[in-house]
Specification:
273 residues, alpha/beta, TIM Barrel, 2 domains, six-stranded mixed beta sheet, 10 helices, 44% helix
Length: 273
């Protein structure tokens, strides 16, 4: 789940309240390249009777598609995490600056100061710039903002300077956590062999898990990833990738899909190793 500490819609404590209302028993906050919301979320989760697992989602360089590495059960104050996040956040801000410069060159002015006051300098990312483009009438909707301006091929696109997957995995492991490959569907691998080769390389670098249950992955993907998890002895995980909660979703892990709690037991056993 994502909170306003990165690109989510809710404050960390309120997000935990929504999770409790919908019947979740174990939760984790995995904001992008920040652990700023973990303290608030953890306190709220415990007060609501839920088990809380520290989390983060780290951007990693990928030849094609998008790669994210999830970290679970680590010490947020560990030096390896602090150093990694500082570097990642600085790179993110440099990218934002290049985007703002390109927008200004097109005559589009975005109130950077206002965005920073709302989100914080280091938490600010492309989703927030996209929302500002929509508010300013420069894009019809969020998807159009990315297609026309911020996404690859867009007029203001600036490539990110991302850490290697190995660096992400090491930062998590050195902080006592388990590194998990997030939603592999976004890797855009062109064959099962390519995906298997990539997972094998990440496992050799210390990867401990793979995200099988995700809103963007259908049953075919789940079966494929389950086979990989068994082959490489990776813990199978699941998550919602929640940024905003629909009023129509009543219960369930992922705010729409129930996940067996025994999966959490397997994850926690890996953390304890």
């Amino acid at each position: 789940m994502h909170s306003r500490a990165s690109d989510g819609h809710y404050e960390p404590a309120y997000l935990m309240k929504l999770a409790s209302i919908r019947g979740l028993s174990v939760v984790s906050l995995t904001d992008h390249d920040t652990v700023a919301g973990l303290g608030e979320a953890g306190d709220a989760a415990h007060n609501l009777g839920m088990t809380f697992v520290s989390g983060v989602e780290l951007d990693a360089a990928c030849r094609r598609g998008t790669m994210h590495i999830l970290g679970y059960g680590f010490d947020p104050s560990a030096e390896s995490i602090r150093v990694h996040l500082a570097a990642a956040q600085s790179a993110r801000w440099r990218r934002n600056e290049r985007i703002f410069e390109r927008l200004r060159a097109m005559g589009i002015e975005i109130d950077e100061q206002r965005l920073m006051e709302q989100r914080g300098r280091m938490a600010l990312g492309r989703p927030h710039i996209a929302a500002a483009l929509v508010r300013g009438g420069h894009a019809k909707d969020y998807a159009s903002a990315f297609r026309d301006y911020l996404g690859e091929g867009g007029k203001a696109y600036a490539p990110g300077v991302e850490m290697t997957a190995g660096a992400c995995i090491s930062a998590i492991r050195n902080a006592g956590g388990v590194a998990v490959l997030a939603h592999p569907v976004t890797l855009r691998c062109e064959s099962d062999l390519e995906l298997e080769t990539l997972v094998a390389r990440l496992e050799s670098e210390g990867l401990g898990g793979i995200e099988i249950w995700h809103p963007g992955q259908n049953e075919i993907w789940r079966r494929r990833l389950t086979r990989l998890a068994k082959r490489f002895d990776l813990v199978a995980t699941g998550g919602s990738d929640t940024h905003v909660v629909s009023d129509h979703e009543k219960r369930g892990a992922g705010f729409g899909e129930r996940i067996d709690a025994r999966i959490v037991d397997d994850l926690m056993s890996r953390i304890a190793r």
